[in-house]
Amino acid sequence: MPLEFPSPHEIDRLIGSYAYRDSRHPQSASTHNIVTNWFAARYGAGSCIDEQPFATGDHGDIQNARQNHIVSRAFSGKTLLVGEGNFSFTASLVFGHHVIPMSITSTIHENSRDISDDAKINARKLSRAGVTVFDNVDATHLDRTSHFQKFDTIIFQFPNAGSREPNRGHNPNHVLVRRFLRSAAEHLLQDGEIIVTVINSSYYDGRFRMDEAAEYAGLKNLYAISFFPGDFPSYSHVNTNDEDSALKEHQSFETWVLQP
Ligand SMILES: C[S@@+](CC[C@H](N)C(=O)[O-])C[C@H]1O[C@@H](n2cnc3c(N)ncnc32)[C@H](O)[C@@H]1O
């Protein structure tokens, strides 16, 4: 008797299960097989997770997708992206690195009526592939979005408050990041991680003051790794207001990894 093809809902449930997330679980291998085969059947053999080719970065290095910290985190559980702008980073994870769409929730702060055509196209493509897409999500108040449960990884690429006005004497970007970290910390599953990518310069370090923000949010473990935009080929960074494009104007970026 042929096996019934699992529904997207069933695959989503499996991805969230302990059997999928804990490699020591007795059904870990069979659950991974079901999920991998489902994606291969639905999107073609090329999308089989374990057969992904290498991705080539702008920096000339050939990097296995799984060696990129953000990609490997996105492969290993439920991921929430906030402040996604035009959704192109999420699109790169899903269509470039073949991260499982059902495990991703991708959000923007803006109302979808006010976003660019590119952003609308990306949102539609992601939604059709199985990504959960929301607008009007304030990263500093994730509790206000009632459908948000908890995630293994919460990502904010290049946070920018879009204002230069100090907020109670603090830089607005520092305030944005620390409030985001505090809110995100409340929405992490066990062993969860928060990931924030920023420009690597003393000027930006002074604006974000990541270590202080982490302490404010009660996050203890903090380290930074280099971020290479070329690892995400279709990622076209969105600017805030009229500011210069961080990816075009700067050479060096860092991804902060924060854990409770
Ligand atoms: C420099 S853009 C980066 C956009 C996108 N992450 C990227 O890498 O292309 C900064 C983003 O932060 C978002 N943002 C600012 N305040 C926010 C908040 N309170 N909650 C969620 N996103 C916010 C803006 O809407 C904007 O899209």
UniProtKB/TrEMBL annotation:
Keywords: Methyltransferase, Transferase. InterPro entries: BMT5-like, SAM-dependent_MTases_sf. GO terms for molecular function: methyltransferase activity. Pfam families: BMT5-like. It is an enzyme of class 2 (transferase). It comes from the Bacteria. Its EC number is 2.1.1.-. GO terms for biological process: methylation. Coiled coil: none annotated. Residues 80-238 form the 25S rRNA (uridine-N(3))-methyltransferase BMT5-like domain. PANTHER family: FERREDOXIN-FOLD ANTICODON-BINDING DOMAIN-CONTAINING PROTEIN 1 (PTHR11538:SF26), PHENYLALANYL-TRNA SYNTHETASE (PTHR11538). This is Class I SAM-dependent methyltransferase.
